[in-house]
Amino acid sequence: MQSAAAPTDRGNDIATTVVTTMGQMGVIGLPRNYEIFYEALTGSNPALSLEVIALGNRPTQEQLDQIGRKFFAQNHGQRIVEQAREVLARELEGVASLLRSERSHIERYGQVLDETSSGLSNRTAMSQELLQKIAGVMSVATAATIDHGRQFASTLGDKSAELETVKSKLEEYKKLADTDPLTHAWNRRAFDNRIAAIYDGNKGVLFSALILADIDRFKDINDRYGHPVGDKILQIVAGIFQTSVHRDMFVARTGGEEFALVVEGMTEDATVEIADRIRMLVEQTQLKDIQPGIDWGQVTVSMGVCMASDADGPQDLYAKADRALYRSKVIGRNRVTRYSSIATQQGKNWLLYKKD
Predict the structure, then answer these.
(1) Coil, helix or strand for 215?
(2) Residue 37 to residue 43: CA distance in whole angstroms
(3) How large is the angle between the packed helices 218-225 and 227-243, nearest 10 degrees?
(4) Pairing mode, strands 336-338 and 301-307
(5) What are the sequence ranges of the domains in the chain?
(6) What does the DSSP 8-state code read for residue 299?
């Protein structure tokens, strides 16, 4: 990690820098963590920057929480967004002021037209000199109005561009808060909102489903090769999920070595086919370190599928898909299980099973 206290090139995409740095350091994508790294990487808080550097390459969440409590005692976690809102409010007031000025100018021009029209209608005969004066007044008023209109259009265009910039920044930070920094998939916060939206209306429930996937024996991988290799494998698996489905499908890393995929508009059979295709792609992917030529071996995933119509709500949907995932683990791993196939089974409590 480069010195966080160094001046930041404002031309760079700070959001991407924050995400990349957090990913490289294995930092969880929590909003308070984004705030800490934003402050550190922009150099706006030198003391905080030095403490982040002192943490080394793989800080723990406890260490980051201590920094958060020390430097953000007032808990201004939404400061970045609030700043954008302040800019937005100022720009909107600027636009409102422009509109008021334009209205006033148009009203004055209308008054000139009314007075001229009234003067003309009340005169039966007018001299050439009077007509020239009227024409002069109308010419000046019209020219001034046209010139003002051009200035208004130009200034309004500038304001619109500034507002678009603010809007883009707000969207950028919202996505930043909803993205897993390591894999660039959606994070748990975004996932919770997404599955809750399924039950906002009956239409979304009928042909929606949740696929949960868990990398088999991931702890063994970390123990044998170390966390950097584990992180690389998480990125590879996330990439397989993201590239093997339609672009509009929702893929999230929900925690640790677990991923989730929300499927819409498909039957249970079609959903299981998607899950099994992803499972096979993971199994067939060669996992090697190109530089030293080390073969990391085969990685597999176990998966569980539950249709939204089989659950009473988002929490129930997650619990049932998780139960199907546990079933896949119990009966041998590297397979896909439908919740509907085990819904009527009694006996073993799957929640007692510890994933690995």
Answers:
(1) strand
(2) 10
(3) 140
(4) parallel
(5) 14-71, 79-177, 188-352
(6) -
Q: Where are the alpha helices (DSSP H) in 8-78?
A: 14-24, 31-42, 46-54, 61-71
* CB environment 236-255: b (16+ within 10 A), e (fewer): bbbebbbebbeeeebbbbbe
pTM: 0.56
Of 104, 93, 91, 98, nearest to 152 by C-alpha is 98
Q: In what helix (H) or strand (E) does residue 204 lie, and over which residues does it extend? A: helix 202-206
The two tokens of residue 28 are 């969880």
Say if CB 275 and CB 281 are below 8 A apart. no
**Beta carbons within 8 Å of 14's beta carbon, 6+ residues apart:** 8, 38, 41, 42
pLDDT digits (tens, 9 = 90+) for 64-100: 888 877 776 544 445 555 566 666 667 667 766 766 7
Exposed (0-12), middle (13-18) or buried (19+): which is 55, by Cβ within 10 Å?
middle
Q: Which CATH superfamily is domain 188-352 in?
A: Reverse transcriptase/Diguanylate cyclase domain (3.30.70.270)
Contact 227, 26 (CB under 8 A): yes
3-class secondary structure, 68: helix
262-292: pLDDT as tens digits: 999 999 999 999 999 999 999 999 887 655 6
Side-chain-facing half-sphere of 334: CA atoms under 13 Å: 10
Q: Is 332 left (phi over 0), alpha (psi -120 to 50) or beta?
A: left
Q: Which two tokens stand for residue 36?
A: 């800490």
HSE-CB at 278 with a 13 A cutoff on CA atoms is: 31
